[in-house]
What does this fold into?
Amino acid sequence: MLAVLLAVALAAPLLAPGDPLAIKGDPLVAPFVQAAHPLGTDRLGRDVLAALMHGARTTLLVAVSAAAAALGIGITVGTVAGFLGGWVDEALMRVAEAFQTVPAFLLTLALISVTGPRAATIVLGIAVGAWMQPARITRAEILSLRERDFVAAARVVGMRPLEIAFREVLPNALTPVVSLAAVIVAAAVLIEAALSFLGFGDPNLVTWGSMIAEGRTVLRRAPYLSIIPGIGLVLTVLAVHLTGRGVAAALRARRVLA
Amino acid sequence: MARPLRLVGRRLVGVVPVFMLVVVGAFLLLEAAPGDAVDAYLGGIGGGDAAQMAALRAEWGLDRGPLPRLAAYVAALLRLDLGWSTAFARPVLAVVLERLPNTLLLMGLASGLALALGSALGVVCGARPGSVRDRVLSLAAIAIYAMPGFWLGLVLIVAFSVELRWLPSGGMETVASGLRGWDRAVDVGRHMVLPVFALGLVYMALYLRLMRDGMAELWAQDFVRAARARGMGGARLVLRHVARNALLPVVTMLGLQSAAMLGGSVVIESVFAIPGLGRLAAEAVARRDTPLLLGVVLLSAVVVMTVNLVIDLAYALLDPRVGSGTGG
Amino acid sequence: MTFLAVRGLGVSYGGVAALAGVSLTLAAGRRLAVLGESGSGKSTLAMAVCGLLPAGAVMAGEVSFPLLGAPVLGRDIGVVFQDPGGSLNPVLTIGEQIAEVAVVHRGLSWRAAAAQAARLLDRMGIAQATSALRRHPHEFSGGQRQRIALAAALAADPVLLVADEPTSALDTVLQQQLIELLDQLVRERGLTLLFVTHDIALASMLADEVAVLYAGGLLETGVVGTVFRTPAHAYTRALLAARLDLDTPLGGRLPEIAADFSVVVPHG
It folds into this structure.
């Protein structure tokens, strides 16, 4: 299912060429009425389907980048904390706790208020709110793997501590983090949608959140404008979750065999 | 009762350094924002000349280096002075405290709904894992969990407010209605129904799955077989023995989700036009009022920490193994 | 009077037979030891008698209680398991868990049941029984938990006590204490006892009759003294010969039972 979504997202510029913000037809045409606009048009006459597809691209791009950033930060912090231990570990965990105390959404809002609504800020904001869980999991895995035989063997061969951390221990610690990645991507999709719904998304991009927000003004007359992008969001999130579970199951099977 | 109190004491001590980190983070953000407190204040009262600005800066300690400024910030916080809000031309603390009760009401009701409904349905599913009703409910839960809160809110508005006309579509209470006492409570209640559901259904789905998964795992445990061997069965077995144990991870999750729920209230309050902290945060960002936003952030952190403390206490009461160093 | 009659009992899990064609009888007030090594099906036999087979197990044959009709688990039959840590619900007090048995099965009030629970704990040798009622399983040692589980098994005054390797998880001193306690309780209350074990010495100490199981089949059964003095089956002979006790010479390899049931001492 995710594959379909990905395909559509990547193909969006080909399938619906031209600016999705351009006015194409009569305003407020209902879905399934006109062949030229299968999902109807919005208040200004823009095609819903085209906007939907472009929005898919933006949403996935932002969500995946944010998740990648969150994982990057989290894994690094977790590895360092788990491997070096001592007061470094303590300090880093306290910092993680501090970040967890502040609601992630508010954190992102705070960053946006400082730099203004830009896609990069949104990505960073989401990442900053989501790195703690990967960090904790990585750290836990590192702690349990640290004492195992192959680490001692590496030490005997003469590898330096950080080298050991990143080349030997880390790849094994990654498996639980991978399933977490799907969860983060799904959450990022929802956060990004919420942000653009509130009007804090990048004003140059069409996203499903902004579509829903626009639909709100004509909610009583044309509810489909808000409902359709939402269904898109639900399907995307479900697809991401299912993909994550599938990947995790496959990894676990591989681990058992290995 | 000494054991849980000792636990709370220990947790309080641990919480202080974390809060200090949050304060430092807030300070850094404040520094990063364009303009400083003096600009904000003078902007709010209509501007002032350079001499006034310099004088205020000296008075508020803003003309010195970063560390003294941090110290001044912390000192102000200890005085409960959260700065000045440009958007409202009032002290941040006053604005924030005004909105706090509404958000607490929303969150409290939503959490209550999520916990009660989620646990109850979770027990229904977990009593017979794999049954038809388990699969149907679990599927529904997964679908609900994937929904964006604001979209769910809009859908609820369309369904119940526009089409069926059962419930109001926004606001905290009917404006200028002059209702008092019980009538007022009912009015507020009616206004709260849709937002509470919009905020709480997602978490209900989460607790449902947690409860159900926990129970499904517990059925295979030895002590359940032993309880069966003592002739315990039916509802007694399900509730007293299995569900009670499965409740523990749900309670833990309740604490962890309090931060997320507070974030979720930002959107829900905006959709339903409820004057609470969440909507205040959105307004603060829209009007570039950084001190106000950070005031909301700090207060949120306090709320989250308090909720976590209460949850920890509840957990210690529910699980006798906590804090006793696992005897025997 | 036959108390328990097992006829042609077979149990299989997912197509694999754990027990096949087992028939035996047990008279009221007698003690039966079900003896065998791991995988012999002895626990399965005990669980089948209780009606505690896991879901997915297919049972053939018949287990009947001529004197009881349809026995109720917990009221007429008390069960003690091998793992002391796994028999008790960690979030409830031990008082609650012992008392609820009497409340559910004998209709006692909670107060009366609690008083009875305290008496039971006292009989089991748990110090300060009344205050112990309010404590939780994790506050007790393994040996104590096993005795608490025993108290819960006896709380409704059953006539049959089934014990699945009750001493296997305990050290020798605790084992001895528990066996003596079992012995006294069975005699005091006139219980019929069915216990599962791999330990010949335990069987000979505690039981009147013994049933020897191997690979899911019943090899022989009879009065303890007879079976152990003049075993009918080669396996039983081998078990007796291979057992370790204080007379076993040190320093050599341990004896093993070969597939044809002869006892061999492997060369080191």
Remarks:
- The mean pLDDT of chain C is 85.
